[in-house]
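WARN retry 2 of 3 for item q-0093 after timeout on previous attempt; input resubmitted unchanged.
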Amino acid sequence: MNFHELADQMSQDMGIYQFENEANTSYYSRLIYSGIGEWIKTACYDNAVDDSLYQEQVGATKHSVTKKCQKILDAYLELFPEQKTWFYPEMDTKNILPPVQEIRNRLIGAGCLVPNQENTLQYSMKKCAEITDNLYLYRGWIDRKPEQIIGLGTYTSFPSDIELWNFSEMFSIPQYSADEYTKRYKKYVNMHMCESTNPPTTREYFNYRHWGTNSNAWIQELPENLEMTLYRDNFSDYGCVFLEDDKMYIAGFPKWIMDCHEYRRFYYGLRAMYGKIPKVRINVDEDMFTLRLPSHLPDIEQYALYMLCWPKEHIQDKRLFIGPIETLTSVEKLLQNLTLNVVISHD
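OK item q-0093 returned
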């Protein structure tokens, strides 16, 4: 089988088709990326002789799943050698995972797969959310072949006999906007603040007036006319900082906020509270859209986004995405909940 025949078969199996004005390299990358996602899901219940820890009730080990799917990715890239740089981009590899592990972790982060005993993986509880008319996103085993794969998400054209979930509830996205979230957190930490009389020389403060990326908005002096912002003493020690009667008070973030990059929600909340709302540009072209984010998202929204579209430039691209028109409304709502100013233009 040559690569044209394989691409056609994968397209039919996953319901993924080339967009009107899409380059071949982009199309093939989407096919392989989604294909590996489906192989990872399948491998969780694929008992093989090289997996001594496989148990029928709990699935296959992470190591086994990764090993099997790495062989599949290698085989794909032999047929599609031009796509190798999409999966192995030339960048600092210190803090990034190999592509199969990255896709596996995205499926876990989105709740499609859950870790189980003996370091195994299994499907999560079955849930379904309506995206548009005749398009439903599923998590868990759906007892039939999916009709379409978008990003890493599994879709069908009609719901099963289970309760429909709201998309935000399905992914545990906060039901109130980022600015309201920040205000509520401020009220909560008022009783947990402590005075900071001798801050370390490494301390930086988030400048919510900065119009660039959030990662470049850190300064060593407190912003003028401060009411509330964020501080960081190092890359694992963040929190809220307040000024009251010329005294500085701080409240450090708990570990779960750091682990889930939830502090990013405060970036957007603070910007909205002080009128510095970033723009998100979405270009619509025939049957697809291209999304450009101003900065990275909290993990909850980032993983949800992987179910609605594909990274565009390479697998580690977390700011530029490409997706079908059918998921545009869900993407727009997700970003608006972070108080981002979504600007849609039609090419």
